[in-house]
Amino acid sequence: MTLLPDSAVRPGRLAVGVVLPSLTVQREQKLPLTEAARHAELAGLDLVAHRGGPVSGTPSLDAAVAVAAAAAATERITVVGEACAPALLPPVRAAEQVASLQYVADGRLVLAVGTDAGHERWAAAGVPYDERERRTDAVLRLLPRLLAGERVALPYEPGYAAAESAPAVPMPPVWIGGTSRTAVRCAARLGDGWFPSLASAAEVAEGTVQLAELAAASGRPAPAVVVGTTGALGGEPGLPGRADIAADLAAAHGGRPGRFADVPVTGGCREAAEHLHRYCGAGVTRVLVDIAGGDWRNQVDLLADVRDLLR
User: Fold this and answer.
1) Residues of the chain by 3-state class (helix, strand, coil), percent to 5
2) What is the pTM of this model?
3) CATH of span 6-310
4) Domain spans of the chain?
5) C-alpha 235: how far from its chain's center?
6) What is the pLDDT of residues 231-245, one digit of tens each?
7) I want to staple 162 with a disulfide (CB 3.0 to 4.6 A). Which of 75, 86, 151, 256 is the partner?
8) Could you tell me which of 137, 138, 143, 141 has the C-alpha nearest to residue 109?
């Protein structure tokens, strides 16, 4: 089994996925993580993602455990480990973890890498905060070689090492998360994808131009573009509207609600499909939606209907 390649996403079409529910939603809706992953797959979505661990800043399952559980519970769907921070681990340990996840996922794993973990997390791992980007670059350069069974020189320790206990697996695709210039540069140099979240279609289009220019300067093809967004679909009583979601995003991330006014995916399936289709013009091939309210299972079913309209 392999993940959906870029060539399988036709121009003007989007592959659609969902972020798995938070611990709070799992408890309130009696929805185990494994059941949620299976539900998304059976509904016909293309991807599921787990967001958590060092970058999320909120209580969550251990990222590797959650991704492994979602992968083991499904057969077809691409499994995205969102907000991974491999530089928090020694390179060999990171390689062993990635190889194990890729093996359990049967080749369906994607690593969405971020560097925004709080100071405390990096300090606890013995990694100076100011070195997080440089160390992330170094680990991403080493991972393919370690997964291939090579002995490599360690960048921050004396000697050589190999991931001898890791299963032999292909390197999973790496998506670099973030909208900053630094994130775009890293994606252009080392990523298979650029993964901006909570950005409008216009902002993504601007970043895509920079991405292509930087990739060309590095002698690489432009990486795929994958967007993370949020929303609530349909007319279920008590659902947050676009303005409510934008206000919540502003409170969580800073800035005025108007900054996020074009981000939320709301309304009926056709309205939501039209909203997401705007990203196609920005070169986006995949979109991951974080459910902002309502019954999670029902929201996934509606999102699958939106996906059908986008195919």
Assistant:
1) 45, 20, 35
2) 0.91
3) 3.20.20.30
4) 6-310
5) 28
6) 999 998 999 999 999
7) 151
8) 143
